[in-house]
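Support request from a user on the community tier.

User writes: "When I paste my structure tokens into the form, the page sometimes reloads and wipes my input. The last time it worked, I copied everything first. Here is what I submitted, just in case something in the input itself triggers the reload:"
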């Protein structure tokens, strides 16, 4: 496992290697010539219904009021400026994005205490609107190596922005991505704050589960993805969530043709051990995933097997959804010692003369959740799992997406999603149903 100095050395070494092989990209025109300005609007609606012992809680002058329904309805705006690069051996550029959201449903009762879908204040009142500088990053390019400094978005098994709400999450820090060696992508990063999906400003990094009061100085990672000529793909990453855990990830996959059927097989594995001052307690955990995805014409099946080995949740930095495992839908099936199996069937309707329309239907079952032996020590933040012994849950969901292919409304997309989740007494997500409707309208200004 690397230390901070090793990460800096890795970043500097990769950049130096890129400088030594610097080439001029003939397709790049310049800072302004390759710039773009796009306004993305997103209409986001969610309606949740609790069942059995699952309620949403609203604080009132008379005490806590239990509600069965919760609604979030917002209009989001994202203005993205992406520059080209200056000329020279070391090229410079700039990415800027402003994020804004307006609440269309402002009832305290409908918000039911708020969630990561709808922003409310400490009294439970809906925040009418909010804005922030979502992305502000300087970028430096040498050959095919890109270094970004500032607020940005990355995707790796250790740190990954999520875009499942009105607006996406972003992170403050530095990242490097290199494609200078054919088939090999090298990535590294160091982030010390996050900007949440729902809300303005930024916040310290913390685990998603357990206690959000526990914060880390940084999350740093380094790794690589490699694709061979024969079609094998592999990934290896290491990371440090300072004073909380050290983590390793390995991935291996390949696509193969079995007659008319193409089959994709993917293996994923994580190893996580508490480190440093162990401010989140003792952690000793492994997580494994196997995904088998056969495709025939416009039909795709996905079978997912997943296993968590350890007495705490498989956790990740808040707002990152950095979990490269197969069974991650409404629930992530990441409870202590949980094993799960899932199946997903999707269809691309281009074969039926409806390009742009896709649908999906899935079922996932998680079982054997057992945290009764959890011993995190005096700093342990996952003590809620002590009640979980033999817990189980399952979900059924359906999804439809349509993107306009041409004409005045080209690239406008409509997404509808319905999920149905049922769980035993102490499973985290409880018993609920959720309907989401999302309309994305991109407008290219230049």
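"...and here is what came back when it finally went through:"
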């Amino acid at each position: 496992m690397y230390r901070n100095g090793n990460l800096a050395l890795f970043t500097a070494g990769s950049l130096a290697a890129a400088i030594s092989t610097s080439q001029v990209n003939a397709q790049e025109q310049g800072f302004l010539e390759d710039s773009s300005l796009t306004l993305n609007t997103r209409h986001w609606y969610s309606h949740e219904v609790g069942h059995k012992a699952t309620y949403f809680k609203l604080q009132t002058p008379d005490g806590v009021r239990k509600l069965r329904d919760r609604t979030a309805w917002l209009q989001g705006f994202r203005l993205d400026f992406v520059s080209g690069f200056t000329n020279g051996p070391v090229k410079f550029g700039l990415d800027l994005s402003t994020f804004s959201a307006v609440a269309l449903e402002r009832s305290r009762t409908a918000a039911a205490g708020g969630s990561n879908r709808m922003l409310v204040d400490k009294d439970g009142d809906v925040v009418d609107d909010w804005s922030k500088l979502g992305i502000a990053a300087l970028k430096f390019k040498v050959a095919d190596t890109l270094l970004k400094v500032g607020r940005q978005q990355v995707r790796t098994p250790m740190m990954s922005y999520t875009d499942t709400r009105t607006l996406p999450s972003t992170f403050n820090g530095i990242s490097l991505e290199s494609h200078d060696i054919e088939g090999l992508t090298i990535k590294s990063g160091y982030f010390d704050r996050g900007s949440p999906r729902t809300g303005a400003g930024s916040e310290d990094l913390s685990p998603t589960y357990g206690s959000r009061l526990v914060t880390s100085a940084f999350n740093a990672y380094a790794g690589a993805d490699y694709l061979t000529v024969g079609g094998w793909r592999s990934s290896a990453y290491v990371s440090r969530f300072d004073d909380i855990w050290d983590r390793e990830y390995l991935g291996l996959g390949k696509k193969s043709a079995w007659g008319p059927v193409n089959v994709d097989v993917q293996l994923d594995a994580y190893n996580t051990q508490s480190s440093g001052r162990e401010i989140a307690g003792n952690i000793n955990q492994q997580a494994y995933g196997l995904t088998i995805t056969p495709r025939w014409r416009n039909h795709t099946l996905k079978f997912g097997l997943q296993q968590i080995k350890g007495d705490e949740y498989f956790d990740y930095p808040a707002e990152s959804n950095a979990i490269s495992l197969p069974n991650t839908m409404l629930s992530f099936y990441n409870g202590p010692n949980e094993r799960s199996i899932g199946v997903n069937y999707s269809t691309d309707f281009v074969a039926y003369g409806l390009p742009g329309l896709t649908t999906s239907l899935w079922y996932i079952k998680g079982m054997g959740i057992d945290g009764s032996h959890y011993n995190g020590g005096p700093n342990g933040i996952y003590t809620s799992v002590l009640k979980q012994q033999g817990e189980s849950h399952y979900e059924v969901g359906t999804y439809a997406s349509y993107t306009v292919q041409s004409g005045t409304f080209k690239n406008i997309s409509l997404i509808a999603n319905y999920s149905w989740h049922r769980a035993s007494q102490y499973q985290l997500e409880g018993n609920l149903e959720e309907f989401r409707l999302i309309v994305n309208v991109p407008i290219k200004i230049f």
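Agent notes: The reload is a front-end session timeout and is unrelated to the input. Residues 4-444 form a domain with the Porin fold (CATH 2.40.160.10). The first helix runs from residue 4 to 20. Escalated to web team.
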